[in-house]
Amino acid sequence: MSSVTLTAKAIRRSLLVVAATSVATTGLFSSAVIAADEQKVERIEVTGSRIQRQDMETASPVTVISSEAIRAEGFTSVDQLLQAQTSMAGAALGSSSNNGSDGVAQVDLRGMGSQRTLVLLNGRRMVNSGSGADSSVDLNSIPVAMISRVEILKDGASAVYGSDAIAGVVNIITKKDFEGFQLDLNGSTTSESDGETGEMSGLYGFNTDGGNYTFGAAYSKRESVIQSDRSWTEPGYSSFLPTGSLGSKVQNDAGEWVARSTGYDYTTSSYYQTPNERYSLFANMVQELDNDLVLTGDVLYTKRKSDQQLAPQPADVMLNVCGADGVAAGASCITLSDAMVAGGIAADDTGRVNYRRRTTDAGPRIYSQDTDTFRISAALAGELDINTGMNWDLAYTYGKNKADSSVDNSINATNLKESVYANQDAWFSGVPLTGDIVNDISFTDNANGGNEQHTVSAGLNGDLFDVSAGTVAFAIGAEYRYESGYYNPDPVTVAGDSTAAQQDATDGDYNVISVFQEVSVPFTDKLTGEFALRYDDYSTFGKASTWKVGLTYEATDDLMLRGVAATGFRAPSISELFGGDTGSYDYLDDPWGNAQDPQILVRYTSDDDLKAEESDSYTAGVVYSPSYVDGLSLTLDYWRFKVTNAITRLDVQAGLDECFANASAAACETFNIGANGDLSNLTNSLTNVGSQDTSGVDFNLAYNFEALSLDWKISNDTTYLLNFEQEGNDYTNYIDGNFGAYAEVRNNFSIQAGQDSWNVNYFNRYIGEMDDLGTGDKVDAVLYHNIAGTYFVTDMITLSAGVKNFTDEEPSTVSNGSDGGTVPEVYDTIGRQYYGGVTVKF
Fold first, then answer.
1. CA atoms of 394 and 460, how far apart (whole Å)
2. Please, are residues 294 and 390 in contact by the beta-carbon 8 Å criterion?
3. Which of 112, 14, 256 is nearest to 641 (CA)?
4. Tens digits of per-residue pLDDT, 376-434?
5. Which end of the chain is more exposed for a tag (fewer CB within 10 A), N or C?
6. CA 330 centroid distance within chain
7. If residue 648 lies in a helix (H) or strand (E), which one and from where to where?
8. Any idea where the TonB-dependent receptor plug domain is (predicted)?
């Protein structure tokens, strides 16, 4: 992935030019404008600080990804470009997430969880979005067509932005101050002629006396890729068969009940790439009302229609056996035939037998989402007095997300059991079920949900006073934010009649009042300190105070040292506080021996008394731009993040064992275990007992030069993971389908050569060898190669084309993979892709 790390020299000029033509580029207090009659560069605000400044030198490491780099590599969604960064880990949901994603796309900085990375749009919070009561932003709501650049702040920033900025901040800056018309057409397909994507977008802008208005629209569509359509995919066999099984026995062609020897291949129905269709409208405006008053605003609306597909629903029920001990007289039951008895099928101690069936007669489970996300933000900024250098700002942001979701071909477990009792011959014959039976047991699961956000903020910033080394600058402000969310499951699911887990509705809200301040102090000509302090008061858990201290030291004209120490927090989300109870059949060992089924029902609950997660973060690094090598910049940063009081669930099995072995009143009470091992109300609630501790080193090289009559750009990003621990478990350099990948080494390299009318790019992306958490075996390293080219036909027309995964690398095999025997969120499961596009400007 071609990216640039923000350094003292290499980036300063280009971003100052951008800032000179933008308004409210990155945050609350930003009011840098280019006056129609003055053409002057004023102070700007950068991601990670609210203090406006004339340069880009801060103590925090920031990576900038330009729109040109995004297009060069053919990215059509924000999650794809972010997950390609070396600073990402884990397994963030995205286009390759088929099971349980609800079509959302997220970012997972440092692999600490998407809920611990704050996403901003033009420096202000983006509303959480997805299927309802969501804890993070759905990146699908932000079209690539509207992006000017993406800034990734890679240290804790709660003292500046508040909750969620534990691992860092992703600030997406939209296109603005545009004049004219631009049309972009982009598309791609795989070497297997599937998984096509297409995008069409338009941008129109015009200037007024002291202002600019920019409007945009985008449409994109992504087609699916079936897992079994890739030659490297091994069949994924399941014990749930279309013909059904009793106990562990299945019926053969001769009508005999024998041991099961085959399985159902679910890869023929499941996606590697999920289909997605998006419609977006966006606009930005800036209008100078008088000499020192500026009105800015931006609007975004996105509609997403997405689908995922899984194998037909597996039905797993316990059936009463007629005449068996424990079955009440008159209860519905099945009669075991002579062939069943001869095959060894018998009732258990409770008088029941397990019946499993893959309901292929109903068809695959098709998950669909129709989501709408709307956001509007407006700000008024001005100067208190032109002689004081004091600027004020007042802003309001509103965001709303609503979603309708469904699951076609869901199965009503209650109806299924009654149908088996009433139609035993039909269910146990091994032949397809009749249409009437299928209609009786199947239904479409319909749910709806949403999120809403209101934010009002005000602030003051400017220069306080002069000292011998320069000027002490400051920013102070206050903010009020209201968040609400809800999710309403289908009534069949709420009643517990579905084969899916029982779930109750979620509904809740909270508000927070915040005050914050920052000060930048030049101690000497070379040493500058940055200090931030924030106080938040939540209507739920109470108060949180965070601070940040950063230092920069310009050792020489070529070398700068930087470091940051900060505290952070994450407030519990709506779903964590007010989430409806959800049933889950977990594989557990009952030490009392009461449970007859290895899958024991556990009630997962939220807790409105949850406290905020807390964190400490540290970064220390060097920025080196040698004067003897023009165009070369190097950065090296050490980072560490520690999270305490993390919101998580306890280990149920450990609780069962402790309650049984030690008669532990605390364990029995915590998990609602009754007398003599009564598990009828077994409960696992969210609580503040989790922890994370991760550290590593980031290295970046950027080199721009001329040679052989060509302009060259070389970039290399490396992240070396030193440690990742969660809840006391060490996941460093491990991969697993449940939590993703924490590779010790990730590296991105790019080189570009070109002239005024053309350029050619080569990129490679390396994910190092890891250990398989399930087996301990080595999981092979992968090196992806991408090639792209751009040709500027005229000043109006630009053509681009490229190939992703040029060598068609196969994903590494993971024993406990999340899908298809691998982890699609980590490895490329699509294969070689060809893409191209055309841009026309008027």
1. 9
2. no
3. 112
4. 999 999 988 766 778 999 999 999 999 999 999 999 999 999 999 999 999 998 889 99
5. C
6. 52
7. strand 632-649
8. 56-169
